[in-house]
Amino acid sequence: MEDCMENKSNVTVILLVVLIGAVAGLGLLKGITYAVRVALSPLNAKLASIERGEMNIENRLNAQNNGNSSGSLASIQNDLQQIQNKLNSINTNAQQPQQPPAEDMNKVYNIPQGISSVLGNRNAPVTITEFSDFQCPFCGRFYSAIKDVLAAYPNQVRVVIKNFPLPFHPNARPAAKLAMAANEQGKFQGMMEALLANGGDVSDDKVKEYSKNLGLDYNRLMADYKNQDARWEKQIQDDQQLAQSVDVRGTPTFYLNGRKTNSRDLASFKTQIDAILSGK
Fold first, then answer.
1. Which candidate, 165, 147, 175, places its Cα nearest to that of 264?
2. Tally of CB atoms within 10 A around 139
3. Is the pTM of this model over 0.90?
4. pLDDT digits over 112-152, tens only?
């Protein structure tokens, strides 16, 4: 750098330094602009204005490099300052992402049973409603607590299963439909347990295995699964719409007589169930 400086006038040196700084600054600002575009899409108008400013600067820098001095450094610096001001404005006005409100565990939601499958005594005074995803590992893990509750309260508790297949679980929706098809032969619970135990696996070999173990007519199962797809799809969509109205945020989500519960084992469920049965 020193060798170059010896062969240039002071004016040329200053010009080069400023141009290099401007180019570096422009590169940094363009990088910032891209990041802001991704994070703050509602501010496209301001970003478009910034990009026009960048283009003006680039045109002027090109003119400088080609020996055309019509684009003054003062003008370039002015445009850079305007871009910086706009970025500062975006940073100041950007809203922080809103956090979901805290859950009200005392709120009682209206959750109709509809045509959902029921485990246990259909006329039981206590209802556990579960929004489930048959590929969800947590649904599989906590299902044992549901079985324990049904065994402990065979006449007093029923469990209503609602479908909430998560979009990042590709087998969840087909698994829900397979369980509903199995329900046509009275084997919903058995199919649900098989799917939960196998991570929602709906491969042909596994479905044949489930059918054999549950004593299902495989050909009828697959015919119902395919031919009644529109019916199963509507039931899933109805459950998903209901889930939105009752503030389901993930799976499994349990409700005890309409109230959300964090119970995940027999002991904690028992405390709440006993309180309901005693009228407390």
1. 147
2. 23
3. no
4. 999 999 999 999 999 999 999 999 999 999 999 999 999 99
- What span, in angstroms and rounded, lies between the C-alpha atoms of 250 and 157? 23
On whether the CB atoms of residues 90 and 236 are closer than 8 A, the answer is no
Instruction: Give the phi and the psi of residue 2 in degrees, each rounded to 5.
Output: -65, -40
Report phi then psi at 78, rounded to 5: -65, -45
Rounded CA-CA distance 88/86 in Å is 5
- What is the sign of the dihedral through the CA atoms of 166, 168, 174 and 175? negative
Q: How many angstroms from the chain centroid is the CA of residue 273?
A: 32
Provide CB contacts within 8 A for 17, sequence distance 6+: none
Cα angle 91, 55, 15 (rounded to 5 degrees) comes to 100
Strands (E) located in the chain = 117-120, 126-132, 157-163, 253-256, 259-261
Cβ(176)–Cβ(165) below 8 Å: yes
- Measure CA 197 to chain center: 24
Q: Which amino acid is residue 150, in one-letter code?
A: L
What pLDDT is stored for residue 92 in this prediction? Answer: 60
The predicted pLDDT at position 79 comes to 66
DSSP conformation class of 102: P
9-13, 128-132, 190-194: the lowest-pLDDT one: 9-13
Q: What is the pLDDT of residues 87-121, one digit of tens each?
A: 666 666 556 667 778 888 999 999 999 999 999 99
Q: Which two tokens stand for residue 241?
A: 């719409």
- DSSP secondary structure of 244-272: HHTT--SSSEEEETTEEE---SHHHHHHH
Residue 109 CA to residue 253 CA, distance in Å, equals 13
H-run or E-run covering 236 = helix 229-245
The answer, yes or no, to whether residue 40 has pLDDT greater than 60, is no
- Quick check: 33 pLDDT over 60? no
